[in-house]
Amino acid sequence: MELKRWTQNDPEDSRCDFVLNNASQCGNLAEPNCNRCALHGANKILQAQENRSLRLYKLAKWQARANEITDHDKLKSLREEIAILRILIEERIGQCNDSHDLLLMSGPLSDLIMKVEKVVSSCNKLENNLGDLLDKQKVKNLASLFMSVIVKRLEEYAQAHNLAKEEVSTLIEAIANDFLTYLEENQ
């Protein structure tokens, strides 16, 4: 950078505003878009302005992305975040070649595992508060409703096709027993 001297012909606000030890103002021209010359920190001021502009640009970009995500249907779910954390755990473990590497990775792995636990817990609380989780009572109520619909339809079918009530009752009982057995095995 070449320093240019300020002259009386130049505007006053184009002069470097640095005050020297002898209490006089610097005699150099300030850099464009700055109030200092290169000798007295114009490059730092310009760099700071550029960094501030970059931060504002990124902030606007992130704000636009945040607005995009906010409008997403699955906003109130943390399942994608859980998946990402689990992929990170797999990647960390994949970097290990032996038990020594695994021991060295134990700190970051335990940190990721604790984060997964926190996000899973938060996800369960969120889904429970939103009513997205089926508890045992909801499953039983749903099964009862499902069975009553099946019974109704089978009885209608039996009447339409002149089937014996005993055959329909046996079929309904078999379906109900199979369903209850399945529920007991998968609790």
Quick rundown:
The chain has 187 residues and is mainly α. The protein is 65% helix and 0% strand.
Q: Could you list some keywords that capture this structure?
A:
187 residues, 0% strand, 3 domains, mainly alpha, 65% helix, 6 helices
Description:
The protein is elongated. 4% of the residues are buried. It has 187 residues and is mainly α. The mean pLDDT is 82. The chain starts with 41 loop residues before the first helix and ends with a helix. The chain is built from six helices and no strands. The chain has helices at 42-70, 79-94, 99-104, 106-130, 136-160, 165-185.
Fold topology:
Elements: H1 42-70, H2 79-94, H3 99-104, H4 106-130, H5 136-160, H6 165-185
Helix pairs in contact: 2-4, 5-6
Number of helices: 6
Largest beta-sheet details = none
Q: How far is it from the N-terminal to the C-terminal residue, by CA?
A: 76 Å
Q: Radius of gyration, rounded? A: 36 Å
Structural class: mainly alpha
Quote the average pLDDT: 82
Helix content: 55-70%
Oligomeric category: single chain
Low-confidence stretches: none
Coarse shape: elongated
Number of domains: 3
Strand proportion, as a percent range, falls in under 5%
The ordered H/E elements are HHHHHH
